[in-house]
Structure prediction request, 479 residues.
Amino acid sequence: MAAAGLFVSGMPWLKDLYAQDGLKTVKLGIIGPGSRGMLLLEHLKSVPELEISCFCDDYEPHFERAGQFLPGAKGYRDYREMLEKEQMDGVVIAVPLHKHKEITVAALDAGLHTFCEKAMAKTYEDCNEMVKARERNNKILYIGHQRIFNTRVLQAMKEIEEGTIGEVTQMRAYWHRNNDWRRPLPSPELERKINWRMYHEYSLGLMTELASHHLQVTNWVLKDKPDYVMGSGGINYWKDGREVFDNVNLVYHYPSGTHVIYDSMISNKKYGMEIQAMGPKGTIEIETGYQFSEQPPPAAGIIQLINNLEHKVFDAIPIGGASWVPEDPSEDKGTYLLDKLLKTDGTDVEMASFVSDVRNNRIDPWLTQQGFYASIATIMGFEAMMNHRIETWPQGLAI
Amino acid sequence: MKLNDTTITALQKRRELIIIGACFLAAYLLNVIGIIQHKSPAKELVTQLHVVLLVSLAFYGTVILLRILYHVISRLWIRK
Prediction:
């Protein structure tokens, strides 16, 4: 977390995060302490002067686990009862996607600062309703895009803004896994409750659960939102009754003429995940934090001399010039953007930032905008693939 | 198997040191030529010493091979 301090001056939403003097205790509740919710709780536990006073879950194993993790906190099975009865400053929501809008709007209307996991919602209308609820209540609304708080990503953004790679002329992003993306079931009738990511009633699959993160970063890098998208998706491997695609392939167009080429699959993980920003001077791989120059510094003089001698001795004598030279990939190994390897993904700083903003009643609409635009972009991609059409940015949706 | 004692004379030691020194100088000269030819920064006179040492070793190895070859051919010539 200390490393993040380096970027505080350039990233207004991070300021005062680490101030320790005279802290007012913040009271939060959590709705949905499932697997992601528990991870958020783990991070929240290390935030000073924070009390998690209550929790809510309608799934018994999660309810019991949260009760053990938060001794003294009051447990609820209905979020409406919790919002009505509890006096608190804010709420953390980590429920399945289809419940985001309903619970977030209720929390904001109850006067609570709100953190809601990404993506915002399943439809344009629901996303917009969440934004309107934030605006009418003038409260904080974070959407869980932790890359905004990831030191490696922040450093990459700094390099891009300083023009290290020149104007970004293309972005590529991909997220590849090799597993069925299913959770084990305690009993078959819980299939839709546990594996909600597999069904359109609850989720838009790879788009809302993974692509949302990358589209937030591409919007951030390009300082804009896509005006249209085309794409195709399908189920070509995990034919196990799921409804959501197991592979998605999209091209987003931005008003500047720049494109983001995105794909995601869950039947091969060789390439893992990456976000590549490419410009005439270089490339930055944002997820892994490496920078590559289009003109890497030349080798030492003696090495060049030896190479030249070697070529003169061993190379074939050309009779005529080559008509075609292969465009081999650059052999530049790149330089790591930070002094040391960073293992956290930014969620720890994100949670600390949320608590700090709640404490100081600091409302930053930019953060909500990032979540909103990324969520709209994910829905656009989904609609483009489902309807086999070019999907344009919905008119009137802007912050 | 019977192993014999061998003696390396002061003259032999001096000769080897001179050869090694000559190899190092030749490699260093290569570094200087490389820097001039490719307009590399002068700091490479120091920073590329590890490469110079490797090239020196390669030169010395080549000299050893040539000397072994010379001895083998000489012996065969004498036997004839």
